[in-house]
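Bug: token stream looks shifted between consecutive jobs. Job 1:
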Amino acid sequence: EQQEQQEKEQDIWMASQHARMRILEVGCGVGNTIFPLLEYNQDDHFFVYACDYAPTAIELVKGHELYDKRRCRAFVCDVSNDKLPFPENSLDVIVLVFVLSALHPTEAKEAIAKLSTVSLCCTVRSHICFIPILFIFWYYDWLTSLFCV
């Protein structure tokens, strides 16, 4: 079972190897954040991960017309208890909308600690910063201008 879990984690991570910008939405629900992101940004190098505690939510995301495994990957994950399938410092942006408030304070602290290890941008210590979605687009455009001709 451990081998199967490792293969699943590697499959999730390998899906975005072509990407220059990787976003993770934790607590994605039915995709009300990820699908507008994907619709707005048609760049093939823009990749969105989506995870949720509820398997039913993930099935709904995977059934959406905009769900494309070349541009996004949805998976079931309890961020307070499960291992994240990402290497250290590998994600550009992590979006959490009403996730931490749904967790017990101890679980929220554990989730923040895990998420901060996979984030490129910053380490969350004792505070939480909320980044508007428009900032994500600006940040992506800025990164693209640095690395693309």
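Job 2, same session, no restart:
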Amino acid sequence: HERSITVVKYNYDGDLLFTASKDHVPSVWRAEDGGRLGTFAGHKGTIWDLDIDRFTTRVLTASADA
């Protein structure tokens, strides 16, 4: 991330870590070694919160998009 991190959450299985920040880009990481697996696009404002469904098939984000 290029700006302050606002939220960090593990998925239900604990093998993935999801982060969001003021840089508008939620990311997903491997919990084991910290390698970034990818990012999610679409926001234009700070992402304040996120959550992952039980099966890690969906990510819900809450942002300050105008």
